[in-house]
Amino acid sequence: MARRRQIYEGKAKILYEGPEPGTLIQYFKDDATAFNAQKKGTISGKGVLNNRISEHIFTLLGHIGVPTHFIRRLNMREQLIRQVEIVPIEVVVRNVVAGSLSKRLGIEEGTQLPRTIIEYYYKDDALGDPMITDEHIACFGWASQEEMHDIADLAIRTNDFLCGLFAGVGIRLVDFKLEFGRIWDNDYGRIILADEISPDGCRLWDIESNEKLDKDRFRRDLGGEVEAYQEVARRLGLLPEGADAGAVLDLEKHRKRRGK
Ligand code: 5GP
User: Fold this and answer.
1) What are the residue boundaries of the structural domains of the chain, listed by start?
2) Which distant-in-sequence residues (6+ apart) come within 8 Å of 152 by Cβ?
3) For residue range 48-72, what is the model confidence (pLDDT) as tens digits?
4) Residue 212 pLDDT > 70, yes or no?
5) What is the reported pTM?
6) Phi, psi of 88 (to 5 degrees)
7) Angle 145-167/46-63 helices, nearest 10 degrees?
8) Which residues line ligand 1 (CB under 6 A)?
9) Is the CATH number 3.20.20.70 carried by domain 6-236?
10) Which of 8, 42, 149, 166 fits as disulfide partner to 171, beta carbons 3.0 to 4.6 Å?
11) What was the pLDDT predicted at 243?
């Protein structure tokens, strides 16, 4: 089979040319990085779980009218997506104090916020994704005022929906990162949700025990990363009840092991 053309390789995903114009294939790797790639590792099976979790969440968001780039899952590690022009802004939504917010302002992790906070970061690895405001976005033309209005609206709708979804399975949605893209209809640009939503870019705490079920297990050397991601998938009903670690069959790895 002819090799597909690789469009982009990021820290956790690869984008390949899709089967039709305007589509891409998003491949989920097991690679994990933290602290702007200063810490690197592999979480075996992560890509398979994130592909499935992100598919589930994007599909549900589509049902409530949040436009996303997701078209359909192709296999264990790949999904077909719409090609977008990525807006170079990471949108972080926070419900509870944690991570960089806790460090920056010296507020204890776990403090419930009286209202949801949206923060913007400029997507630039070389600069370490610096925090920015609407003023920078407007000044440097990274997105129009109208686009920022749509982005904030979609981020809040996504947060409201996800808070309920996770609360229903005993998980507190502490914070998460979103990315958006533009699609063009002739001269008319429209903002849609892009990238992924998975435990890689969310803080998910067990409501009862506050146990971390996300990438902080890797960032903070807590161990049990795969088990945590699997627990999220299991609670969302994406793994058969009572399934063990081997239940997420990674066919690609299996084939590689057999030398095929
Ligand atoms: P913080 O600013 O506290 O480090 O991160 C806030 C939230 O956004 C966390 O849920 C974190 O996982 C997510 N986040 C922020 N930047 C990135 C990033 O570059 N990659 C990923 N995967 N998640 C991020």
Assistant:
1) 6-236
2) 118
3) 999 999 999 999 999 999 999 999 9
4) yes
5) 0.93
6) -80, 50
7) 110
8) 90, 92, 98-101, 129, 175-177, 200-203, 215
9) no
10) 166
11) 58
